[in-house]
Amino acid sequence: LSDGLETGYRLAAGAFREDATNRVILLSDGLANTGETAWQAILDRVSEYAGKKITLLCVGVGREYGDELMEQLADRGDGAAVYVSTEDEVRKAFTERLTTTLEVRARDAKAQVSFNPSAVESYSLLGYEDRALTSEDFRDDSKDGGEIGPGHAVTALYRVRLRPDADGRLATATVRWLDPDTRRPSEADRSVDVFALAPALWGSASVRLQVDAVAADLAGHLRGRGSGKGGTWSLAELIDQADRLAARTEDPAVTELATLLRTTRDLG
Q1: Nearest to 203, CA basis, from 216, 214, 189
Q2: Domain-wise residue ranges, the chain
Q3: Which residues in the chain show pLDDT less than 50?
Q4: Which residues, including other chains, have CB under 8 Å from residue 83's CB and lie 6 or more apart?
Q5: Can you identify the CATH homologous superfamily of domain 2-102?
């Protein structure tokens, strides 16, 4: 992995064009087991080239996939990480979605959510354990964020416990990013009221948000297996949600999610 990256970066540096997208594409199982195997040394080299405006796209392959290293490489390389396991996914990654994966619309994007303590008793972010930033780092543009390509979206989900009779403002969400060319920072924010969490509004929420929530809850079940902890919904409830969303969207990926939920249930 280390030697392949070094060769790719050396070739990209030799063909560097200031007015072009200069990117190395790494196909790997993410298992650094020959050559330089110390993660930090590899990550430092990737950061060095990212500082020279040569970015990295990580394409994961293989049954034994080291997703943690590949995600960190993509993070340090100002790029993205995708995983492909079928011919159809390969075609999408290198044809249909290649432009959206290679180009960058927002650099070092960060999101921060400030909850109203008078309305929220407790909260926890689902996932992103390796991408957490301190509050002080949010407006420190020297701290690395994520790169967002055209047509891409990122969803951050929180599990929230409200205080009794909570009302009014629930939270304020702020996003900050750098222009990919000028590196000029921009911010946008929006507040959300407690009313937005009313169960009656769930069915009218964004379909994509509903799908993301179902997928995240499945991940909670899988991560909590054997520990007595799991997702918010039961597997039966999740299957009902996924079936409804699959019929509504006619999206093969959502149908696949419903199938995966049934497999999880059947495996106990």
Answers
A1: 214
A2: 2-102, 106-197, 200-267
A3: 226-228
A4: 59, 60, 61, 65, 67, 89
A5: von Willebrand factor, type A domain (3.40.50.410)
If we measure between CA atoms, which residue out of 42, 35, 40, 34 comes closest to residue 58? Answer: 42
Structure confidence by residue, pLDDT tens digits, 204-241: 899 999 999 999 999 888 887 544 456 788 889 999 99
137-174, pLDDT tens digit by residue? 999 988 878 888 887 888 889 989 999 999 999 999 99
Which two three-digit tokens encode residue 35? 């050559």
For the chain, how are helix, strand and coil distributed in percent, rounded to 5?
45, 20, 35
Q: What is the Cα–Cα distance from 210 to 258, expressed in whole angstroms?
A: 13
Contact call for residues 206 and 133 (beta carbons, < 8 A)? no
Nearest 10 degrees: CA dihedral of 113, 114, 115, 116?
A: -150
